[in-house]
Amino acid sequence: MSTRLAAARGVLEHLGLDGILVSDAYDVRYLCGFRGEDAMLVVGRTTALICTDSRYWAQVAEEVEGFALERTEALVRDSTAAAARELGERAALGFQGGTLTHADYRLLRRRHRGRLRDVGDKLSRLRGLKEPAEIEAVRRAAAMTDAALEAVVAGGLVGRTEAEIAWQIREELHRRGAEGPSFDTVVAAGPRGALAHAIPGQRRIVAGDLVVVDSGARVDGYCSDITRTFAAGELSDELRRVYAIVLAAQLVAVEALRPGVTGHAADKVARDVIEAAGYGDAFGHGTGHGVGLEIHEYPRLGRRSRDVLAPGMLFTVEPGIYLQDVGGVRIEDTVVLGEDGCRLLTLFPKELVTVG
Amino acid sequence: MSTRLAAARGVLEHLGLDGILVSDAYDVRYLCGFRGEDAMLVVGRTTALICTDSRYWAQVAEEVEGFALERTEALVRDSTAAAARELGERAALGFQGGTLTHADYRLLRRRHRGRLRDVGDKLSRLRGLKEPAEIEAVRRAAAMTDAALEAVVAGGLVGRTEAEIAWQIREELHRRGAEGPSFDTVVAAGPRGALAHAIPGQRRIVAGDLVVVDSGARVDGYCSDITRTFAAGELSDELRRVYAIVLAAQLVAVEALRPGVTGHAADKVARDVIEAAGYGDAFGHGTGHGVGLEIHEYPRLGRRSRDVLAPGMLFTVEPGIYLQDVGGVRIEDTVVLGEDGCRLLTLFPKELVTVG
To answer: A36 contacts in B (CB within 8 Å)?
Structure first.
């Protein structure tokens, strides 16, 4: 934690600020260990405060070290006052415009007499480079989702509903000690597979369906994220071909990952395969996203991403093809980048598995 | 839905606006039925657009009626452009400063040439008055949590962990058809009961503990919210007394609820009982909050609330006493206000239940 706080202070010194008001809940947890909600940090060159209301004071005592507790009634008002007291009334103060609401910004602007600067995601990007213990937490979470997928295959698909399979995954994650899912599990069968973010429903899976299963577990706050697409019984030739295209795109993208590659270039490797096969319009999302305390974080692998991949970054690789009224395929791993390429943290096989 | 859209248009006409850019996800669902994320609405006097990216286009077709689909790549940029096209370049446009981030506001400000006005919670407040079908959904969700608490009592407390009990509730809610929990269940035993928002842990419950259990179910998107505090075996005299005080505060507050009472006055009824007993400092949160699609919504029952209670409002009544290193008591019902007072939707008994 003290290394992280030092890195945060590096950010504010680099930006010429006297302090930063940290409103992003994941950054709060990352910097001080607090697992609750409704807290802000005031980080100055020598100051470290956690500001929260009475619901959380005992929890702060349990979870947080190295930050003084500022007892608040109104979070933004009192945190702003604490920043002025600790850093000076005219302090140059950074804030996080991507998580602070505009209403809270206006409160801050009205009350703080010094300069304000939106630090964007500059602080949150510190979370992009993972420490070994963070990678290990994601690896443990990934092992749980691997096991949950094995259980799904063992339980069969045809005749079951999407909701039943989602619940089976939920139970497996609990049995294996996950804190919970890292996001709402997607189980999307047949035509519903064309909805990238489908809510599991009550339709029974029939032979010939592709079944997209996208799930994640949480361990020590850290998320895993894996998608596999199964064949329920025999597939049509078109669906087999679509599966093969997505698999090829995913494999070449994983293979191409190296330090120094941009998020744009990594996305292009996968996208080129899908476009060359004539399905470019059917791949409507980016190729991947960072994973950590937050399920979607820095870096991004996508058409507009300028992020540069570096050793220690942990992210997904997840191309897909979605055909309206027909079905979808997505294949997603969570990987960690090393000097020579990336290592898979999700290990469930990727060749097409046909399940009865 | 068309009644709701008409009410939203009433708000913008009342404020002299040409349209509102709706960013609050619960308002989006309330007005158009869309259950996904990452969408905005443009509501004008005759315009109704839902703006979202390709991940959700098929879902919009399934779930939304009466709104035209605006296909976006960058949500704020493209929604702002659509508003200008539909409402005029110089249109007076409302936005929701309590949910729009400051970064998104700046994008909006840079791109929209007309007047902008923060409508605050004026649109979200429409959700405060419930229709019969909404009350029925909450009632069904409340029946599920009642049943889950019965299962907890039947399963016993002493020797089990908080996490085991939280999982038992999760399973019961699933068995009874809930979409999921409406928030992370709190199970806080013994000294941990002093943490109003404790995360269930691995400590085993011992005789003499008070056990705070705060849970909710979700049905058709609507939330229930109930807290009961159980005695694990025989309690000390002090804890029995604290329980009796909180129960008295809860009962008189429920009894005092009438149309026209303010959130401040309702809070004061409960708080006076607790203060008179000498525990005023140990009741650090408000007495209640509205419940609906969102687990915490309009109205608020608290010291600073000016909300005026009206028939059809649905909210919690939940005083508590938290004694650091000793334990906590909270007793919470979800209620709906009628002309003559309120009706409980959560029906689990409130007298002290001692569980072995």
So the answer is: 197
